[in-house]
TrEMBL record:
The active site is at residues 49, 52. Belongs to the thioredoxin family. Pfam families: Thioredoxin (PF00085). One of its GO terms (cellular component) is cytoplasm. The keyword Electron transport applies. The record marks 43 as: Deprotonates C-terminal active site Cys. This is Thioredoxin. The record marks 50-51 as: Contributes to redox potential value.
Length: 128
């Protein structure tokens, strides 16, 4: 029962949000399944990572500009079993940003990037 309650609370917290936290337990639903409705970027980050702290506000500014066509799932790799997500995707450094579309991971980039790079990265996958 606790797990179902937790899942409902998590679903409610994520529903309709453009930027949200996710974890290994919810990754399939929050990212893979959701990417069948809209693009989902996954920000694999760590608190100790300087470039992660540079990229986070860039993503936070750019994502809302797409008016719901793109969502951002943030994964703190040092929490719980979240490093398994990074391992499954071959992330060797942070930040690593994955792009999911139609239920599949289709592209990625590594490191801190400026706004124009992030917009171009997203734009090349919209309506493509």
């Amino acid at each position: 029962m606790t797990l179902q309650h937790h899942d409902k609370a998590h679903d409610k917290a994520v529903a309709g949000r453009l930027i949200f936290d996710t974890d290994l337990e919810h990754f399939e639903r929050d990212v893979v399944e959701a990417s069948k409705q809209h693009l989902v970027l996954v920000d694999l980050w760590a608190d100790w990572c300087g470039p992660c702290h540079f990229l986070s506000p860039v993503l936070g500014k750019v994502i809302p500009e797409y008016a719901g066509k793109v969502r951002l799932a943030k994964v703190e790799v040092d929490e719980g079993d979240n490093m398994k997500i990074a391992g499954r995707h071959g992330a060797r450094g942070f930040p690593t940003v994955l792009l999911y579309k139609n239920g599949e991971m289709v592209d990625r980039f590594h490191g801190a990037k400026p706004e124009h790079f992030v917009r171009e990265f997203i734009d090349q996958h919209l309506d493509a």
